[in-house]
Amino acid sequence: MKTELISLVLVLLALVGTPTGVILYDNAARPANEITLVAHRPLDGNWSQREIRVKRGQTVRLRLTSEDVTHGFYVPDLGIDAGPISPGKFKTVEFTPERTGSFRFYCNILCSHEHGGMIGQIIVE
Amino acid sequence: MNLVRFTILILALIFVGLIVGPFATTDAAGPDDTADIVVEARQFSYQPSIIRVKKGQRVRITLRAMDLTHGLHVDDYGQEVVSTPGQPQQLEFVADKSGRFPLRCSQTCGPLHPFMVGSLIVEPNLPFGTSVALAALLSLGYLGFLWTRREPPLAPLSGGSVDLAAPKASLPSTLRKEITGGVRIDFLKLPVLGAFLRWRGFQFALMLPLLFFMMLALVAGLRGSPVGNSNLGIVFVWILWWALLIILLIPFGGRVWCAMCPLPGPGEWLQRLSFVRRREGASFSLGKAWPAKLRNIWLQNGAFLLIALFSAIVLTTPWATVAVLVTFAALSLGLALIFQGRAFCRYVCPLGGFIGLCSMVAPLAVRVKDREVCRAHKGKECIKGSAAGYGCPWFEYPGTMHRNAYCGLCMECVKTCPKGNIAAGLQPFGRDLVVDRGHADEAYRTFIALGSAALYSAVMLGPWGWLRSLAGNPLASGFALYAIILLGTCLILVPGLFLVTAWLARLASGTSTVSVARLWRNFSYGLVPLGLTVWIAFSLSVVLASGYRLIPTLSDPLGHGWNLFGTAGFEGGPVLMNLLPYIQTTVLLIGLVWSIKTCWQLACRMFIRRDEAWRALGPVTLFLFGATATFLWLYLG
């Protein structure tokens, strides 16, 4: 019976342990001061966050990625242009906002006919 | 003639072609001559998708992205350009190599991006011309070689499986040897491997790690990035596993995958209420017998076609891959709870049908050592089971089993046989294909394998954007047309052409002793080697083009920006693309010659006289050459 018991534990480990472990790690792997911004074409969900709230004087790390086609990330008022963001790849942008207000961000790589609607704003409080 | 010598011969001929080739071109253009081409790129095709230039010409490609950012990478030339809409970009190089070079989109532009391919054909297309000429030469040469083998005049030729109904004493001595000694090298006699195969935990030990990997693929597919080539689910299943299966496991191990596949695990463990140990009496299953009318592989054929229809989506979309895996797992569990044994694996699993077909090529086999021992022994523990193991879950009787087709290599009979009469080892390649009585369902499986390979190659590797857009969107009306094309090719065109071939073979043979239907059924087994090599050629181009994705996705399985092993940032690309056409040609030509050889052996079993068999082989060889040339055209033309 010992063989059977060990086997049962191993099977449960594979069936239940694998997904649980992956999901737990996935949740733990995201630091607090980091914001992940996922780009989709406007008809497929647009930016994952249309509004990003940050505090003045605090450094923000933005992790940019895309889940469909190549996009851009452009905040003219903060002088940020991340360049092309390819699907499945990550780009990190760091900035420390010095003044309060709201700043628009755009996709600056033509991604679809609705490209012009790919807008969001960063609100500095 | 043996395969190794043939491989060397083919390689030598290709080598000669490569050396002679450049001198043979007389109409090559001068360097001042420039081909100016404007290419429009849309999801997921180029317009024009086929660019023809002359060798030596200067090529200037202006890439105009029309809908979103696209790239264009010329394989082998290593040239690349990226364009965003409204900003055309130019690429200039000298076409100094002849042949066909895929143009690939280098900017992920959506789900079917990996298949966004065009063709640059630098004429004269020597690799293609040479390979077709080689195929013709080899076909004729082999036919000529067999012509010298018409003596002695009476068939059959040795080297195949044997009709078991025939009494042993009346068989010639060469055949008798094959009945008793089919397996040459018996792994059960080896020290470590033999003990492993006899161990009760054998199958569990194979399944457990794969169960872990399958769960990893599932969770990645569900929770990870929808970008196919950044998701471990897609990369594991459709690049790593598929390539290993087609290129390595099937040609050498036959159904060995079926011994380790984790999908039927839960069902089988419930049927047995045990993982490893043999437990008698208890079972969590209704244990019904599989319906007699479904004891064939028509269900598998249908299921294979169903998956084939949606392959363009399944191969690129993580959730679709998850859906397919979960459906298989649920079906295998459900059927295990109702029926006995591996009913799902043997009669339903679409992949099981395909692997079973190709496993007849493989040398790895489980067979009895001496059939006389089984005939005299009344216990039949291999069917009923004993204290040492379970009765065959694949509904086979090892005592008369003479083909790999439906043996799942689970090694239960090795444990149950009280006479130690089972051998598990190696037999000659392709031995099981030489059948005496073919079956229509198995013949159709071969036609489906050939037809779907042609369609897959056209959709995923070919420059035909219109076909790709038909296949890529099941919700659009064009999908019905794609379904008609796919089903028509697999169910009508290929079997129909082969029926004409069988009719011609009968005509050519000059005798009416063998019916057209029998020729059609039996000769279909001769197509299997070519069918397998066609799939190898197709899978090679997939794994060489996208195999590098395994390295970054191992570190970042969900595409969430992890970096487990520090390889997440790995920037690779297609490898060995310059050699791919030559590898594919070699593989296909081996398949061609092997198929002709198998058809000759099949013919010798059907016809009474060898000269009749040889004449019947003519039309069949023509069909095989035609099929090979078609695939050469798909890959190089």
Notes on the protein architecture:
The complex is a heterodimer of chains A (125) and B (637). Chain A is elongated and about 70 Å long. Helix content of chain A is 22%, strand content 30%. Chain A is α/β, with parallel strands linked by helices. Chain A starts with a helix and ends with a strand. Chain A has a three-stranded mixed β-sheet with strand order 1-3-6, with no helix packed on it. A three-stranded mixed β-sheet of chain A has the order 2-8-7, with no helix packed on it. A two-stranded antiparallel ribbon of chain A has the order 4-5. By secondary structure, chain B is of the alpha+beta class. Chain B has three domains: 36-124, Cupredoxins -  blue copper proteins (Immunoglobulin-like, Sandwich); 129-154 and 438-636, no CATH class; 187-432, no CATH class. Chain B has helices spanning 3-24, 126-147, 173-180, 191-198, 202-223, 232-253, 256-260, 265-272, 298-309, 311-314, 318-338, 343-348, 350-359, 371-376, 381-384, 412-416, 440-461, 465-472, 478-509, 516-524, 528-546, 550-555, 580-606, 610-636, and strands at 34-42, 45-47, 50-54, 58-65, 70-74, 79-83, 89-94, 99-104, 117-123, 185-186, 364-368, 385-386, 389-390, 422-426. In chain B, the strands form four sheets. Chain B has a five-stranded mixed β-sheet with strand order 3-9-8-5-6.
Share of residues in helices of chain B: 40-55%
Mean model confidence by pLDDT of chain A: 88
Distance between the termini of chain A: 64 Å
Main β sheet profile of chain B:
5 strands, mixed
Shape of chain B: globular
The CATH class assignment of the largest domain in chain A is Mainly Beta
Kindly give the count of domains of chain A: 2
Segments of chain A where pLDDT lies below 50 for 5+ residues? none
The class by helix and strand makeup of chain A works out as: alpha/beta
Give, in order, the helices and strands of chain A: HEEEEEEEE
What global shape of chain A is seen?
A: elongated
Radius of gyration of chain A: 20 Å
What is the CATH T-level topology of the largest domain in chain A?
Immunoglobulin-like
CATH architecture of the largest domain in chain A: Sandwich
How many β strands of chain A by DSSP?
A: 8
Largest interface: A-B, 36 and 39 residues
